[in-house]
Amino acid sequence: MNKRANGFAGVSFLLAAIISLSAVAYFVCKVMERRAYNERWSEYDECGLG
Fold it and tell me: Total structural domains in the chain?
């Protein structure tokens, strides 16, 4: 029973780590995407079209 509990704890930790890293990667991609979007359209804001 002890090995099974240790295995379950290991799987739970691995799953939590994967979910956490996925969330961080999602937010980093969103921030970079937003920055690229703002940089692209900043030229239009400067000339008055935005």
Answer: 1
Alpha-carbon distance 18 to 31, whole Å?
20
Region of 11 (left: φ > 0; alpha: ψ -120 to 50; beta: rest) is alpha
Alpha carbon 10 to chain centroid distance?
A: 23
**pTM assigned to the model:** 0.69
- Report d(CA 32, CA 27) in Å as an integer: 9
Q: Is residue 28 part of a domain?
A: yes
How far is Cα 5 from Cα 45, in angstroms, rounded to an integer? 59
Tens-digit pLDDT string for the chain (50 aa): 577 778 888 899 999 999 999 999 999 999 999 999 998 888 777 776 65
